[in-house]
Amino acid sequence: MISKDQSVREQHLAVRNCGGWYDFTHRLLEIEGEDVTAFLDWIFAGAVARVKVGGAKYTVMLDASARIRDDVIIFRLEEQKYWISTLYMRDLIKWLDGHKGTYRVSYRDVTKDWQMYSVQGPKARELVNAVAEQPVDELKFFHIADNQMDGAPIKVARSGYTGEKVGYEIYVSPADEQRLTEKLEAEGTKLGLIHVTEVDVMAMTLACEKGFVLMMDLWRTNPLEVGFEKSIAWDTEFIGKAALERIREEGPKRELLGITVDDLDARIYGGPHGATVMLDGNVIGKTTKYTFSPILNKSIGYVLVDKGLVKVGDTVEINGVKAVISERRFLP
Question: For position 4, what pLDDT does the model report?
Fold first, then answer.
């Protein structure tokens, strides 16, 4: 019988070495209207207006204190129509409702209208081309395009949450979902790609190796504490800009770094609020994520710590476990 840990390792390595596919549906908000671009530029810190039709942008939503409320991917489907991909639909809609004002926009949750399947890994393009009617070879990273599968409409985006150079997301109507899964299974088996079923592989191990974050890492931080400086459109106006400019002038007080633990038997668990990070007997921060890297064959994770107290190579203690500070991205 294969243990869960062994299954996670095998599925993780399969994606890195060949490829894998899985149902990874986020919540989707469709938003449109005469003022939609200006509204999104006000809500998000990443200059949505600069995204061309068919393009996408990863950006963050801030409160007035410049704390991150959500991180999302925004797809520009048409000049005045977008998709916002989020894990926190209820909070997003509540926030938009509270800041809509006189902006002429409308939005609705269209998650029930689309299922999203992620295809990631070295052979991902081959599998998507075997499923879609139109080849995706020329689809650029962070772009989305209409396509078909056996005559049924689908959308294909060049993106993913694994850090793989080749990765796609296929959006399909629930009515055609069964047909898509059958094609992915049949064509994937021919190519050697597997159906990934372990949640830890989809949401934790692959992403963490490449330095990707979730809201569990970003909660109550500001963009400058988590390395998002280059993603901020400082020449635009957005909620939280004034506070973020003050933080830039004063310097962020914390930083999000990586850790490695060589002891494979060591376990770090700090509950939903993270485990305490200690240096020379003093509390300097907390963990935000901790998982196992099948590629590195060691445990890895992130810590949010007071800025300037540690550097790469330093050793800290977390729940009695020795951990070494590292860059947040563990693999190139």
Answer: 63
